[in-house]
Design a protein that fits this description.
Number of strands: 13
Radius of gyration: 24 Å
Largest sheet: 6 strands, mixed
Mean pLDDT: 96
Structural class: alpha/beta
Low-confidence stretches: none
Distance between the termini: 40 Å
Shape: elongated
Length: 400
Amino acid sequence: MEAVTIKKEAEQVIEQAEEELLAISRYIHENPELAFTEFKAQKVLTDFLAKHGFSKIEKGVSEMETSFVAECCPTGVKEPVIAICGEYDALPIGHACGHNLIAVSSIGSALAVKEVMEKHELEGTLRLVGCPAEESGGGKIIHIAHGVFDDVAIALLMHPTSGVSRIAGKCKSEFELDVTFTGKTAHAEAHPEDGINALDAMTLFFNAIGLVRQQLPKEIGVSYFLQEGGISECLIPEQTTTKCLITSFGSLALTNAVEKIKRCAEGAAIATGCTCSINEMPGYLGRIDNDVLEKVGKQNMALLGEPVMAGAPADNGATDFGNVQRIVPGLNPYISLLTEEKISNHTEQFKQLAISKRSEYVGIFSSKLLAYCAIDCLLDPQLIEDAWAELRERQQSPEF
C-alpha cells in the first residue's frame, strides 16, 4: 500500500482522538509540574496510551519516577526502532515552553502509528519515550545512560515556536561550573583584618569574566548568578557560591572557554587568599542537523499545508534532544504558535500562546507530522541508512 494512503489513515486516527488530545493538553497546562515531579502528566499520558491499546507500558524507566516507555511491535520484527520523544515538565512560571503540546504530539502521533502498523502489519518497533526534566535535569541524557536509545534507528521530537515554522538546525552545547570561594569570617567593623573575604574573590571572578570575554569567540556565551554572598553586613563573608553557564556551537571552542573561566576563578582565589572549589558539570549537547531527515520533515509539512522556513536555522538555545541527536539521527520540527512575529519562549506571553486557539492546531498538526515522518521511516529502509551515513560523517568533524 502506498505511503500516502497509510498517512491519511493515520491522520484520521488523530482527528478521531482530537478532543481527547486537546483536553490532555489543557490539563497538563493547568497542572504545571517541575523537573522529576511530573506525576500528573505521566498518569494522564499513560492512561491515554493504555486506553488506546498500548499493552506494553513501563513507568519509572531509567530510575526516573516520572518517566515512561510505551512500545508497539505488531509483527514481532523489532527493527527498525522509531522513537517518538515526549516532554511534559514545566518552568517555575508554568508551561511557558509549550511542553503540554510536545506531550500531546507524542501520544497523538504514537497512537496513529500504532494503529496503521497493526492494520498493515508494518515491520519495526514504535517506541514512545516519556522524557521528564528537559528544562532542568536532562531526562533524555539519563535515558541515554540507561540504554533507552541504544537500538533506536530514528528519533523524533516536536517543539513549539513562534515566527515561521521550521526544522531546527544546530543549537548550543552547555557546560556548567559551580564555583565556591571559601575564606574566613570576621567582624566587618571591629576586626576586618582577621577575615578573608570570599565576596571579594567572587567580585574579582565576575570582573575577570567580563575582561576575558574579549578573548573568547563571539559564539561563546557566559551567564552566571550569585547564589550565596554572605549572611550579614556586619560579617566578612566566609563563603560565596555561583553557578556559571558557558555555551557554544562548537565543542572545541566550548572546552577552551571552560578552561579560561576556570582560570579566572582560580586566579581570584589566589588574589584574595581564599580557597576555590569548582564542580564541573557537562550539560546539554548541541543538536546535529540531518539533511536527510530535514527533507522528510519539510515534505510532510508541505503535504499538511504548513509554511516552513528555508534551511535548518541554528538557534542559541539548548536541549537534551541534542544529546540524542549525537548518537541517533533525529528530526526536531519547530511549529509556530504565533506566525506573525518572533518572540521569546520562557515568558508569560508564550505560556498563554501554549493554550491559545492556535495551540490546538499546533497540537493536532504536530501529531500528524510526526506520524507522517515515522511512517516514512518504517516504509523506507534506505532513508534510515542515508540518515545514519550522514550522522556518521558529521561525527568525524573536529567540532562534533
